[in-house]
Amino acid sequence: MTSSTAAAVDLASALDTVDTWLTEYISASHPEIGRTGPICPFVSPSRKNRTMEIRLRLVGPAPSRELVEEIARSSLREYELTTWQGRNPMLQAMAVVLPDLRSEDTALLDQAQARVKDDYVERGLMIGQFHENCEVTAARNPRFAVSRAPVPVLAIRAIALHDVFFLSDRPHWFAKYREKFGKFYGPGSTLMDPLLAERYQEAEQAFGGRS
Fold first, then answer.
1. 144 and 172 share a domain?
2. Which of the four pLDDT bands, split at 50, 70 and 90, describes residue 4?
3. Would you state the pLDDT for residue 50?
4. Which of 141, 158, 175 corresponds to the end of one domain?
5. Where in the sequence is the domain holding 182, given as residue range(s)?
6. Using one digit for the tens of pLDDT, what is the confidence trace for 116-129?
């Protein structure tokens, strides 16, 4: 990172923008999300618990898919090597901010996320991409592009119960999810969300014991 590049990007402004986005959008409710509560229920408690880590990564004037993918892979290693302040692993989160990734290059973030997701899930983690052009929609409202952000971000956190929405498409993803959360769907389960149960049952029927 050169000083001229950092100055041109204005890193302080980028961090302020991300902070506002996390506070006013990600940690807030939204009428289009399709449920009550904030867009991401983990961000606010993670920040209060001081287990939200922010990292800055510059891609330069000619980014490639390989470069952005390497940033995603190195972020996995950094996440695993981080000494977290809080004790609750479910609240350990990392936001990797790419402030100089231009709007016309944000598809590289989508491509990188898709290529590294297997590695993250294998380690019990999720990685999601957020940027101004992101077409990822809310699990309960396919008309709402929920993952929009004013600055490109890769978000990393532990797999959570609601991630059945994002891990039911492939047998090895679902196997990892079932390994951690299958007990919540068994006989006598008190799981209150019927949509989670429905998605789990669909994946169970589709994949059975495959992984």
1. no
2. very low
3. 92
4. 158
5. 167-207
6. 999 999 999 999 99
